Every structure is written in C-alpha cells, then in structure tokens.
Amino acid sequence: MGLENLGKRIKQERTRQCITQEQLAEKADISLNFMSLIENGKNMSVQTLINIAKALNVSVDYLLSDAKDNYSDIITERIAEDISTLNPDEKLFFMNMIKQYKSLNR
Questions:
Q1: 48-100 confidence digits (pLDDT tens)
Q2: What are the C-alpha distances in Å from 73 to residues 39, 55, 94?
C-alpha cells in the first residue's frame, strides 16, 4: 500500500468515526498540520502510524490493508459489537430499520 492510500484509509476511518483531524492529531500526539499531511500521503514514522492506529482504535494491519473484504469484515464486526450493547427493544428497532432499508434498495 502506498502512502497516499494509507492517508486515504486513515481519513476514511477518522471520518467514519466522526472524529475531526484536530481531535485525531491530539489523540495521536502530532500537530494538526502533520495530520493533514499524513492524510494527503506524507511519510510518517512507524511510531506515528502506531499512535494513529491506537487513537482510532484499529490495528496497524487494518490501516495498511488494501483488501476491501477485510474492511467489510471489520465493519460487520463493529456493527455487531455496537448492536450487542443495545437493549432488546433497541435491537428490534435497528433490525426493522435494516429490513426497511433492504426492501427499499431491491
């Protein structure tokens, strides 16, 4: 994976988690300017990559992976984790939402 794709992957995950560049930079102990450069393909140290992965609560392997299937599996796992924290009524609500979404997109 090239640095540009790594930067895109970091940005994609940051955006998915609704975290600003500034928040991620602070969590990863780097400057906002450097965070921006990283997302645009700037080189970084291994330690910085580790710090970013920890700040995003993902593995370095995940950030370095090009495999879309791997990404899909991780998203599925995260959805399952999030749903497992809901009470039964909330789970039923989301199950019905998913069914409605699927029926609209057929």
A1: 999 999 999 998 988 887 645 466 677 787 888 889 999 999 999 989 999 99
A2: 23, 20, 19
Spatial separation of the C-alpha atoms in residues 73 and 35, rounded to whole Å: 27
The total domain count for the chain is 1
- Residue 83 domain boundaries: 3-104
Q: Indicate which CATH number applies to the domain containing 53.
A: 1.10.260.40
Spell out the residues 6+ positions from residue 24 whose beta carbon is closer than 8 angstroms to its own: 10, 14, 35, 52, 55, 56
Instruction: For the full predicted model, state whether its pTM sits above 0.70.
Output: no
